[in-house]
Amino acid sequence: MQIQAAVLYTPNTPFILETLTLDDPRAGEVRVKIAACGVCHSDYHLVTGTTRHPLPVVCGHEGAGVVEAVGEGVTRIQPGDHVILNWAPACGDCWYCRHDKPNLCATFTDPIWAGVMLDGTTRLHLPNGDPVYAYCGLASFADHVVVPEQSCIPIRRDVPLTAASLVGCAVATGVGAAFYTANVRPGDSVVVIGCGGVGLNVLQGAAICGASTIIAVDTNPAKMRIAEEFGATHALLSNDNTVAEIRALTGGRGADHAFEAVGLPKLQEMALAAARPGGNVILAGLSPMGSSTNLPGSIITREEKSVKGSYYGSVDSQRDFPLLVDLYAAGKLKLDELVSQEYRLEEINEAFETMMTGSVARGVIVF
Asked: Which residues share a beta bridge with 83?
């Protein structure tokens, strides 16, 4: 079938709206009509070239839609299902899946980074037949996608798909980091450095967990009000005294849990300094490929600070996406408030320009 998609041909160039050919789903695959797709900084890493990926590519990894067709052998998904797309599908049988770490599934890692399906081929093609690759195995900056069955998580049908579209990346990554990676407990103190889509969801995840002191840190004054709406009890504009201010708000010790939600080495180092002795440092932001961070081993050892990576919020998508949707339906999780602005697909470059100003919680492409 013919679809409309936003294609990135080379780094540091705009997305170009193209008519592409989308193949029918093969065995174990599903075709989804996309309803909405979030605009995420991880996609922008391909634009800048800080994330290397085969090109040309259709980006987009945070979406939701309605199943239109299924391939041979698909039994868990059926046409008409409302689904959230999952960019870290789990096979259920590899070592990581069998040891309760489906977010680290080894089966899908290589093909996803290669932009292809499990059989090594693409489902997207230019008019001349050349392949177009799929970012995170989804390519949801398009009106239709073909994805592995494991990339579709069915959800209840009474939840708006625009709101549900954000669960598949920013919400799962941020809320999951608080729920599962850090295991925030009632009464804990939390600092979140960086209040973009992931950071805002760490804030509300910490609030749901019952944290008593929740400190938001960002360089953008516009983010202070938004952070408070998502659960921050204190909002600090980052400066040379930020770590001292965090300690002053946490009994002079530092936070029980310090989250870095941007992926910048200097902010990761700030998170280590902001955590109390015996506290947790959670690295939830995606760092540019090839970057490194100076985290002094003497401090980590002598102060018993734990440094943990958080990939996709340590979630089990099959379990947690429906849970997050239920929390939203119960009024306990903010999704509508995350959607700052809606765009048409042809406005995608404008959407990224606005995202880079830091003035929005999340922009969403709505089809």
From this structure: 65, 154
Pair (114, 228) in one structural domain: no
| pTM of the predicted model as reported, rounded to 2 decimal places | 0.93
Domain identity same for 223 and 86: no
Whether residue 114 sits in one domain with residue 74: yes
Query: DSSP letters along 108-166, please?
Result: THHHHHHTS-TTS--SEE-TTS-EEEEGGGT--SBSEEEEEGGGEEEE-TTS-HHHHGG
User: What residues are annotated to the active site?
Assistant: 40, 42, 45, 61, 169
What pLDDT digit, counting tens, does each position of 198-219 carry? 999 999 999 999 999 999 999 9
DSSP 180: I
Number of folded domains in the chain? 2
The three-class DSSP label of residue 227 is helix
Q: Are residues 132 and 187 in the same domain?
A: no
Q: What is the pLDDT of residues 282-338, one digit of tens each?
A: 999 988 778 888 899 999 999 999 999 999 999 999 999 999 999 999 999 999 999
pLDDT band at 360; cut points 50, 70, 90: confident
Residue 159 sits in the same domain as residue 31: yes
- Whether the CB-CB separation of 174 and 237 falls below 8 Å is answered with no
For 208, the domain range is 173-311
